[in-house]
Amino acid sequence: MSVYLLRRLIQAALVMLAMSVIVFIGVYAIGDPVEILISPDADQAERARAIAALGLDKPLWEQYFSFLGNALRGDLGRSFVFNEPALQLIAQRAPATLELAFGATFLAVLVGLPLGLYAGLRPNGVGAKTIMAGSILGFSLPTFWVGLMLIMVFAVQLGWLPSTGRGETVEVLGMRWSFLTWNGLTHMAMPALNLALFKISLVIRLTRAGVRETMLMDYVKFARAKGLAPKRIIGVHVFKNILIPVVTVVGLELGSTIAFSVVTESVFAWPGMGKLIIDSINVLDRPVIVAYLMSIVFMFIVINLIVDLLYSVLDPRVRLESK
Description:
Mean pLDDT: 81
Largest sheet: 2 strands, antiparallel
Structural class: mainly alpha
Number of domains: 2
Radius of gyration: 24 Å
Helix content: over 70%
Number of helices: 13
Shape: globular
Distance between the termini: 11 Å
Oligomer: single chain
CATH architecture of the largest domain: Orthogonal Bundle
CATH class of the largest domain: Mainly Alpha
Order of helices and strands: HHHHHHHEEHHHHHH
Number of strands: 2
Strand order of the largest sheet: 1-2
């Protein structure tokens, strides 16, 4: 295990280094924030002072190595707009995005697993066919349109749920969380559901395919021949084996949900990282864009490591050192 973790840490460091080059060059080579941030009425001397203050007067390679040196000390630069550390701005918005992503993933597993299990055990039933047809809708409907429809129905027509904002929050471990209050949960319900629809459909189809495949395995047939109860066969022999691909895909989808929650956060005015990155792109706030992208890369690496560790827990035959 220790050898595996050391190898993964080295791989993670190399991935972060490579992504820092790609992200930095990709962001800093496009556009000119000076044209947005500095008043057009400013004279040449004022422009020169502003450019020097932002560090944009240096060559691109020198800016990168300066960024890399600061990043190794935990400093990803200061926002051009807010004049605050970019990482601090990301950290302030991260709890809102994380609770939305984890809420959507929880809904996907809570709803998708039992529905997929039912559809796999009774593939020819009316209920199973209805579930699979519903999963196609979950894949097909655009996220922004579903979000608008949710607002129209549950906020405007019925008045059951608030349409925008995060609601009341509670401070825990120095961060503000809304899922710990009832008002926050009501604000979180629609955006979490909107994010979860695609994931629910994915989990349903993965679970159904896994059940159909596992039910044909010899060990399931042997368990039936031994006279084991159907609940035990499903709960022990079937369910545990279908969890491995589900855990893998859900783990990767969690990272995607965190990274691509921009549309949902914009529709519901959810004050998370997605909304921050859209605002930063509009004004070419380069340090915030780079800090956001590097934070997403780091989250993906951590999630992948956790998924690999869960592999060995769910299937003892998997040995991490032999991968």
